[in-house]
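Data availability (excerpt). The following record was deposited with the supplementary files.
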Amino acid sequence: MINVMEFGKYKALIMYDPDIQMMRGEFINLNGGADFYASDVESLKREGEISLKVFLEECERRGIAPTKAYSGHFVLRTTKETHEAAAIKAASNGLSLNQWASKVIGEAAFA
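Predicted structure:
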């Protein structure tokens, strides 16, 4: 099961890893990796905040944007907000944006 945890405007996918018996969080709208682990929800929130803080500080130190640039289009035009939400929805379903969009459009077109 995959869930999304929000840290302000940043979002992380939360998954359970049975091999290490811990939950793993992975930020999905950042330009780089900032993952975190914990065995309970409160610790996961705390570790996520720490991981995000370290990542954002490093981006600032290097002078790079911390988030991916969502262009607002993928063949068709949409808002940046809709593009980001679709990317998050696709990832939370274990699909690429293209796979998810194709599935959703196909379901709507053939309904």
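Summary of structural features: The radius of gyration is 16 Å.
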